[in-house]
Specification:
Length: 172
């Protein structure tokens, strides 16, 4: 029987990220207003084209600040995609769950060694898990993610047996 699961997790914005987005959007609006002012009062009509460009830039900054991660489990593979602004999708990594060698709750205060780290988390440490897996291209990979119950069950079906008990005990 096929094992399939999909989950979308929205990245929570920190105060600094929100302030950065507001500052960038505000800056583009100020630049647009300046271009329009000089376009109207100085007779420099070509500046209205720049004003439209600054407006478009401000809109793009706001739209692209929304980030989501999608975990797709199909049989023994887990794909992690990054979705930017609900319109642009980028595959971050595909891992073979049969090659996993550790899994559990993610302790942010404790460093877990790996050659490559993939952060695909909502930003909430209380729900975060880690998965250590051997990857043919990236070596030892640490995936930090926020699986829900359905995703954990799908992962548990595919990881080696000794890790299943650990995953189930960490959830309880």
């Amino acid at each position: 029987m096929d094992n399939c699961s999909e989950q979308i997790v929205s990245k929570k914005k920190t105060g600094a990220e929100t302030a950065k987005t507001i500052a960038m959007a505000g800056g583009s609006l100020l630049a647009m207003a300046a271009c329009m002012f000089f376009s109207v009062f100085a007779g420099l009509v070509f500046l209205s084209i720049f004003a439209a460009g600054f407006l478009a830039l401000g809109v793009m900054v706001i739209i692209n600040s929304n980030i989501e991660y999608e975990y797709i489990i199909t049989n023994n593979e887990m794909d992690i995609d990054k979705i930017i602004g609900k319109r642009k999708r980028k595959r971050m990594i595909t891992v073979d769950l049969k090659k996993a060698y550790d899994i559990g709750k993610y302790p942010p205060e404790q460093e877990i060694e790996a050659e490559t780290t993939v952060h695909a988390t909502s930003g909430l440490a209380k729900d975060a898990h880690y998965l250590l897996v051997k990857h043919s291209e990236y070596g030892d990979v640490k995936v930090i993610f926020n699986p829900n119950e359905k995703t954990r069950e799908a992962i548990a079906q595919e990881i080696p047996k000794q890790l299943r008990a650990k995953l189930e005990s960490d959830v309880k």
